[in-house]
Design goal:
With 253 residues, this protein is of the alpha/beta class. Helices cover 43% and strands 16% of the residues. The chain is built from twelve helices and eight strands. It has an eight-stranded parallel β-sheet with strand order 7-6-5-4-3-2-1-8.
């Protein structure tokens, strides 16, 4: 029986203004104030971070960013460094989301660099990986997620790994309304856990938190969270509705 703590993280993507952020959080706080066995994270757009950090002060909600650059500073117009995030009050950052890989040409190499930069700055990383539909249909899900796990964590130490959460997100289930079955999610998360064991040892494999991301919502969360290898969710669309996200947190209780 798993003893790992659940992590429920909302990924707002490119949604919510600072004013909407404050309104959402003020409504959300009383809904989850009694949550004790889960960490709750809202990963918001960069411009919403100050409003979000201020709104969650003295609550059980943490704030994350959705991306980070791998350099500390320099001529990288439009980018944000890990230290900038830390000084803004951010504790978590999503790295390697499928939309970043798909639309912004991120590779396992740049995902690895971003992961290490974030960890070096003291951030907790939500590292996303997962297969596309063609890979699932050709029966190579295990090979794909194993390779991504190894490449994305290259050079990450066992100590640093304690600040890494892996989010398994089958790309074919992102924003499509399709969801992996609980068994498919558990199997893929189990593959990732096995690879972590090979790389870092059984203790690390037993302790690492592996989320499922891919159209998890208030209707299917309980089934998915009941799986042995699923330790939480990276929630997209449902995280934009306070009631729906609170219901997912409740399912983790």
């Amino acid at each position: 029986m798993k003893k790992r703590r659940y992590v429920i993280a909302g990924n707002w993507k490119m949604n919510q203004t600072p004013a909407e952020t404050k309104e959402f959080i003020n409504k959300f706080i009383p809904m989850v104030k009694d949550c004790v066995n889960s960490d709750i994270v809202l990963c918001v757009p960069f411009v919403d971070i100050p409003a979000a950090v201020s709104a969650v002060k003295d609550t059980n909600i943490k704030i994350g960013a959705q991306n980070v650059h791998f350099m500390k500073n320099g001529a990288y117009t439009g980018e944000i460094s890990a230290q900038m995030l830390v000084e803004s009050g951010v504790e978590y950052v999503i790295v390697g989301h499928s939309e970043r890989r798909q639309y912004f040409a991120e590779t396992d190499k740049t995902v690895n660099l971003r992961t290490k930069a974030a960890l070096d700055a003291g951030l907790k990383v939500i590292l996303c990986l997962g297969e596309v539909l063609e890979q699932r249909e050709n029966g190579i899900t295990e090979e794909v997620v194993s390779m991504q796990t190894k490449l994305d964590l290259l050079g990450v130490t066992e100590e640093q790994l304690k600040n890494v959460i892996i989010a398994y997100e089958p790309v074919w289930a992102i924003g499509t309304g399709l969801t992996a079955t609980p068994q498919q999610a558990d199997e893929a998360c189990g593959v990732i856990r096995k690879v972590i064991g090979e790389l870092y040892g059984q203790n690390a494999a037993d302790e690492i938190i592996i989320q499922y991301g891919g159209s998890m919502n208030d209707k299917n969360a309980a089934e998915l969270l009941a799986m042995e290898n699923v330790d939480g969710g990276l929630i997209g669309g449902a995280s934009l509705k306070p009631e729906a996200l609170a219901a997912i947190v409740a399912a983790a209780q």
